[in-house]
Every structure is written in C-alpha cells, then in structure tokens.
Design goal:
117 residues, alpha+beta, four-stranded antiparallel β-sheet, 4 strands
C-alpha cells in the first residue's frame, strides 16, 4: 500500500476461483473519493469483434452502479470481493461470449433535463 500526492493505492493478487488465473490488481482511492480498480497483469483480453464489457475507457473495471458504494464502506468487504466476482464473469465471458455479471452496460447517462428540475 502506498500514499502519494493524496492518492492511496493498493496492489495485490487475486485468484477468484481455484481454477482461475492469478491476477495482479490495483485499487487506487483518489481525490474523488471513489475506488478505481484495474487489472495490472495479465493483460485483459477481448473476444474477436467485441469490446471488453464492464470496463471504462481508461481501463478501470465497472464494479457497481452509482449509489451502490460510498466512502464510508470498507474496500475489503465491497470492492475486493466485487473485483473478484468481476474476474469470474470476465473468465466466463472470455470462454463463452456471455456476461453473467448483471449490471447496465454501457452505463446509463444522466438525463440533463432531470438534473435541472
């Protein structure tokens, strides 16, 4: 674990199931107060003709919907198991092409008309 320029970062290994690969993960808690999770290695693969599901443009994982996590929650009890579950669903998707992890993808954008009301 390290703290640099106001950013707390943890790097560690996850193996979501006994049959899974070992993944090096990085969880960074930045100025926005939200955890940003990425797979450091091995590099995530995609299926031919498909984009990697439930990942953001910068390569971080989409683990929860808006409002499902807040800074008062424990990273160990939420983000780490959610990342492990994401990895299981990634491995299934890589083998079958089906994503069983649920969630909305791509994430729904806020309607600007509703924000003004």
């Amino acid at each position: 674990m390290s703290l640099q320029r106001g950013r707390l970062t943890w790097t560690g290994e996850l193996q979501p199931t006994p049959l899974s690969r070992h993944y090096v993960m990085r969880i960074a808690l930045g100025h926005d107060g939200l955890p940003h999770v990425r797979v450091v290695s091995p590099a995530l693969e995609s299926r031919e003709g498909a984009t990697l599901p439930h990942t953001y443009r910068e390569g971080t994982l989409c683990l929860y919907s808006r409002g499902e996590w807040n800074p008062s929650m424990s990273l160990v009890l939420t983000i780490v198991p959610w990342a492990s579950e994401w990895l299981v669903n990634y491995e299934i998707w890589l083998a079958t092409g089906d994503w069983y992890g649920g969630g909305d993808w791509p994430p729904r954008r806020r309607d600007p008309r509703k924000q003004a009301a």
